[in-house]
Amino acid sequence: MIATRFAFRAVPQLQHSVRHYATEGSSPGGMNKWVKYVGGAFGASLVAFGVLRALAPRPDEEEVIRRLEMLSGKKAGSNPANKTFKGGDQGWLDLKLESVEELSHNTKKLRFALPDKDDVSGLEVASALLTKFKGPEMEKVRGPTKRLNSEAHHLKACDQTIHSNKQRRGHIDLVVKKYPTGPMSSYLHNMEPPQRLDFKGPIPKYPWSPNKHDHICLIAGGTGITPMYQLCRAIFNNPSDKTKVTLVFGNVSEEDILLKREFEDLENTYPQRFRAFYMLDKPSENWIGGTGYINFDLLKKVLPEPKVENIKIFVCGPPGMYKSISGPKKSPQDQGDLGGFLKELGYQKDQVYKF
Predict the structure, then answer these.
(1) Largest pairwise CA distance in the chain
(2) Nearest-5° Cα angle at 270, 265 to 272
(3) Cα 249 to the chain's mean position, in Å?
(4) N- to C-terminal Cα distance for the chain?
(5) If you compute the radius of gyration of the chain from its CA atoms, what whole number of angstroms results?
(6) Element (H, E) at 94
């Protein structure tokens, strides 16, 4: 059974259809068991798809930073901060773990210190970092030369979309969901301050700019929500960006829904521009959202018509989700052919981006 929400907590029940909402223009005032997201492998068998995400700060935190700069005699932007991650030939950087916070039964937030308290990460919206750690088989290896020569065989690595507000100074926060078959996520969950982790990047993903699209649709499973959240923060933290956003978010159970409070805040603050639809594989008796997997009928109801101009659909989740909804990527650089439900619904390849 498919159940979708037609109202937000802060507004009366909407009387118009979901499809009507999805196709209307931006308001000037102003979502199989494959959802059980497991780690996948990139390239060599020891290259693990970890679950590593960094969160943008909330608006009140940004305001605090701005006021502190004013009190210290600095004008915002007058003293450009050093960017920790510069890409290119920069190489690996090791950062110290400052703190760990439990977010759910299988998810933690890890805060890593940047080299200097005034540094910023240098990460743009929807960019990525590589991470790696030394496995047990490397314990007897000594010296940088041996380590580099053995890297492909003995170092666990992770290529993930990382999210961090580029103005946040001194640290980055990573949200890590643990998977039994994920070496990287398991290692990160076992880390304790002041252990260190190697990072490299950034790796550009989708270049975002304000009002690039009139309406974007975010289809996510599990921790695939995090690049979607960062897009939302970039849009709704910018008063000049009027982009409308529809989110479709699939999970196993309610406790697996990451960032739900943040999305509820957006629903209540921007009821004409943001809507979220949740689907659970194993809902509780009290669950009032959608049940089952993200499917053809649901997407047909909540997404804008394919013929609507200047829309973009973003997809991020486990491999089975890509197969069912959009078709898989061929490689990190090749989006591959459009397939799945989105192709059946009539969307074109250039209307869809797969993280």
Answers:
(1) 67
(2) 140
(3) 12
(4) 28
(5) 21
(6) strand 93-104
Cα(93)–Cα(97) distance, integer angstroms: 13
Sign of CA dihedral 150, 151, 152, 157: positive
Q: What one-letter code names the amino acid at 286?
A: N
Strand partners, 175: 53, 109
Residue 189 contacts residue 121 (beta carbons within 8 Å)? no
| Contact call for residues 219 and 32 (beta carbons, < 8 A) | no
Place of tokens 């946040």: 168
Q: H or E stretch including 189?
A: helix 183-189
Q: Which helix (H) or strand (E) segment is 154 a member of?
A: helix 151-154
Q: What is the DSSP letter of 288?
A: -
Percent of the chain with pLDDT strictly greater than 70: 68
The pLDDT score that the predictor gives to residue 137 is 56
* Nearest partner of 129 among 147, 105, 110, 148, judged by Cα: 110
Of 251, 321, 258, 262, residue with least CA distance to 289: 251
**How confident is the model over 122-176, as pLDDT tens digits?**
888 877 788 888 766 554 333 332 222 223 223 344 444 444 455 678 998 888 8
**pTM of the full predicted structure?**
0.70
User: Using an 8 Å Cβ cutoff, are 3 and 245 in contact?
Assistant: no
Q: Using an 8 Å Cβ cutoff, are 230 and 223 in contact?
A: no
Rounded CA separation 215/165 (Å) = 22
- Are the C-beta atoms of residues 224 and 318 closer than 8 Å to each other? yes
| Confidence class for position 304, pLDDT limits 50, 70, 90 | very high
